[in-house]
Amino acid sequence: MLIIKVGGSVITDKSKYLAFRNPVMDRIAEVLSHIREQMIIVHGAGSFGHLKAKEFDLPGRISERTLQGMNIVHTDVIRLNNEVLQRLRSHGLNVSSLTPFSLFNGRRNYSLMRRLISLGVNTVSHGDVYVTRESVNIISGDTIVRDLARLFRPRRVVFMSDVDGVYDRDPKKIRNAHLLRTVNGHVTVDGVNNDVTGGMRGKLNAMFEISRYAGETVLMNGFHPERLNQIGTERFIGTIIGTK
Ligand code: IP8
User: Fold this and answer.
1) What confidence tens digit (pLDDT) does each residue in 32-74 have?
2) Rounded distance, CA 142 to CA 126, Å?
């Protein structure tokens, strides 16, 4: 089994509310359509989630405002999910989409996902909002991937992000930063950390944990989805996380 996380910063312009990158998702879908292995695809929320989540103080205790924000954000991420599904379907990928808002009643419940996986169905899920007894929570795509990796022990988990991989220094600030082909221990990430689910630092921590459950955990650039086919070869551009 393969779990693929498609970053919100890849398929949306995170600075512009509701800006879907149709051609980018289309190329990713094309590459995925050639894979003959069971797949779970999880996408982030990008500008369909993070901007309104911040504006409405999410995650937060239940209030008129957070409940209103919950509905806005959920409606928006469903719109993004529909765009993603249409791109996948146009390349012949017939997938079931599972939306956390409706699946998670207070706790993160994956029983429907388990059932569909056991039937051999390819599934899609996404970062979302959901309600617990006291609060409106946000579940990031990375947390979903971590839960699924723990449950299904996939052969490989691939994170498609907006960078080539993990660098020894921040490539957005330092010109000759080097891409690391593998990272094993703790690496310092000197990046801006301004998104509601933790930014790059949070993602790396999640990836290290995931690498304990998956045969292989990979970070690569989603703007070059064809690199997926080069994983395991000398030509591959990306980072293998927590090699065993
Ligand atoms: O983009 C965040 O998911 P992520 C979900 O995977 C929301 O971090 C609703 C902001």
Assistant:
1) 999 999 999 999 999 999 999 999 999 999 999 999 999 999 9
2) 9
Amino acid at 116: L
Q: What is the residue extent of each domain of the chain?
A: 2-242
From ligand 1's centre to the CA of 91, what distance in Å? Answer: 25
Class of domain 2-242: alpha beta
* Ligand 1 site-directed mutation target among 47, 129, 138, most atoms within 8 Å of CB: 138
CA 141 – ligand 1 centroid, Å: 6
CA–CA separation, 199 vs 174, rounded Å?
19
3-state secondary structure of 95: strand
Which ligand 1 atom is the nearest neighbour of the CA of 45? 1
**Computed over its alpha carbons, how large is the radius of gyration of the chain?**
17
Kindly state if the Cβ of 69 falls inside 6 Å of ligand 1: no
pTM listed for this prediction: 0.93
What does the alpha-carbon distance between residue 37 and residue 158 come to, in Å, rounded to a whole number?
Answer: 14
For residue 197, the CA-to-ligand 1 centroid distance in Å is: 6
Residue pointed to by tokens 């579940």:
139
